[in-house]
Amino acid sequence: MLRKPVPLLLAGAALLLSGCASDPAQQGPRLVTSVYPLEFLAREVAGDRVAVSSLTPQGAEPHDLELAPAQVRSLTTAELVLYVSGLQPSVDDAVGEAAGTVVDAAEVLGLEDGHEEHDPAAHDGHDHDGDPHFWLDPTLLGRLAAPLAEALAEVDPAGAETFRANAERLAAELSEIDAEYAGRLSSCARDVLVVSHEAYGYLAERHGLVQVGLSGLDPEGEPSPARLREIRTVVAEHHVTTIFTEHLVSPKAAEVLAEDLGVATALLDPLETQVDPEADYRDVMRSNLEVLAEGLGCA
User: Fold this and answer.
1) Residue 10 and residue 19 in contact, taking contact as beta carbons nearer than 8 Å
2) pLDDT digits (tens, 9 = 90+) for 236-289
3) Residues with Cβ within 8 Å of residue 31, at least 6 apart in sequence
4) 87 touches 65 (CB < 8 A)
5) What three-state secondary structure class fits 292?
6) Can you state the angle between helices 36-46 and 281-295, rounded to 10 degrees?
7) Please, are residues 97 and 10 in contact by the beta-carbon 8 Å criterion?
8) Cβ count within 10 A of residue 237
């Protein structure tokens, strides 16, 4: 769960470091995160006692992130690194350079065990092992708050009570969001979620929905003709009225398919990055809920 990694070599590709810059005037330990939902969690739990930064620049597509050498070096000076393995190969490699404590959300939450979900577009069920998008189940993000508070307490003992109180508050807020989802999605006309890429497995599993993706976990993957035929069948058999697209994934395939089938498209945000700096994780989760409720015909 918490480990001191052995250094590894990494040749970082050129990329501006804007995503991991932290305020040099801010004192205290430094915490480097890998992706927006973890940055959100870290800022909420750490408060102003810790300088929090992210390796993924705001608005950037995180899956294919390449790290500049300076970003890799930032890991050697951070007291704490928070990431989720299996999402960003470059980060998976780079954490070996970290000199401080490394917290892998996948290990803390036991995501390595994977989870499975029935996919009506597959003949024998669709395996979601390796899905790193755990934060779309807010209870899982909430479960990470307390372990992070303890890791922060190790590097800043004087702030231990603050970190623990912040973690408890945030976990309660995330439980409230989960309850809002449970209430709105408890009575829907449809339970099949057709999406651009399969980032919503944890959300679907939590609320009894079935995820069907045009592509798999790779958002850049193009659906094959066979896959499109399967999805056509799903749309017809399950009376799907909406195909959900994303900000950072080309909507072309989904829009062409939707137009051909006479169904609508709507934007869902997998929260892999912060698209709108004025909208945090909580805001986007609630916005997503409204989009889902309308698209699934929820009472």
Assistant:
1) no
2) 999 999 999 998 888 888 999 999 999 999 999 999 999 999 999 999 999 999
3) 42, 46, 50, 51, 52, 53, 78, 79, 80, 81, 82, 152
4) no
5) helix
6) 130
7) yes
8) 11
